[in-house]
Amino acid sequence: MTTLNLEAAKLMHKHNAHAATDVTGFGILGHSTNLAEFQKDDVDFSIHTLPILAGFSDLCKQLIALGGRNFKLHDGFSSETSGGLLVCLGEEDARRYVEEMRAGGGKAWIIGDVVPGTRTSRIAANPEIIEVTY
Question: Can you say whether the dihedral through the CA atoms of 36, 124, 7, 95 is positive or negative?
């Protein structure tokens, strides 16, 4: 979200990334659905965790409560200028990738699972919100 992607790219090669995209104008749900559509197998991406810049989740809820604009942040459709990377890795590779990113001072989370499905993506009913500091 707030750093360059060089180290992330190096670790993607090291940990056998299957696919990756930056999360920008289509939000996390739009980009993850795009990735799911092009997988070899019929799978879905099931997202259970949403990393969101600190304070923005509450701000969006307050705006909606006051009748303001709904940025669809919690629905996965919030447009981002630079929303970070969505990287597809095997389960063990993902764990090691996150460990190495964090050890190097980066930020990374496992935000979902690949499950049998119909080549789409979905966000859990009550996703965990991670307040990302910058």
Answer: negative
Model confidence, pTM: 0.88
| Mean pLDDT, rounded, for 51-59 | 90
Q: Are 112 and 45 in contact (CB under 8 A)?
A: yes
Average pLDDT over residues 85-102: 96
Q: Quote the tokens at residue 123.
A: 């966000």
The pLDDT value given to residue 79: 76
> Which residues does 31 contact at the CB level (< 8 Å), separation at least 6?
21, 22, 23, 24, 86
